[in-house]
Amino acid sequence: MSTPTPIYPVIELRRYTLVEGAAARFSRCFETWFPEAFQQAGAIALGHFVERGRADRFTWLRAFADMDARLAANTAFYDGPVWQEHKATLNGWIVDSDNVLLLRPLYAGAAIPTLPAVDPVAEPDGARGLAVAQLFQAAPGQFDACAAAAERWYGAYRGDGLVEAGVLTTLDAANNFPRHPVRSDGGWLVWIGVLRDEQALAALQPVLDAAARDLAASDLLARAPELVVLDPGLRSRLRWMHAA
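The structure assignment produced for this chain is given below.
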């Protein structure tokens, strides 16, 4: 009998601005020292990435079973020996770490899957593929209409070499670990997909662009849509795993 895949309904989308050119080094140190330590503390790093075209931007997804687990896991990790040993190195590269969305699945079945860790034998070259995140921020009072409009477009995000990884929205909960600020501007929708290769991205791009134009032309958004292309770190759990 296979082990059920754990579902983590409390998710942080963490986007760090680093000193120029530090993202690749930050990613390698992060994945070497931290994923297992997070897991042992009761959290999980669902995926970690360098943002395409931004050598100063590292993005990752951290997840928890609930808000109480978030407090317990973060306290254990950041007061623990692994972080204490390496924090000077990592913090030396971080310019800003406050661009954080506290999220939940938009609906049942929309949570990001906890994929197995990269197998160093079966995957000697590390994580394959790429990911994309499309971010919409609803205008005040327009969240339901914005979500409905976005979901109509999400249904068109299909194609060979594409897997929808999750659809997330703002979690309306107080930040119970104030050492790590989270954004309070609310009303976010985040679609995340995993793609096999550049060809799959090229095929998806026109639909992503059309959705962004459609919602931007309406009165449903508080700001322009954002599309982030994410290159996975070598040990990123969130990666392309499907047969070609």
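Interim note for the steering committee: Residues 47 and 236 are 5 Å apart (CA to CA). Helices lie at 23-33, 35-41, 67-78, 81-91, 143-154, 198-216.
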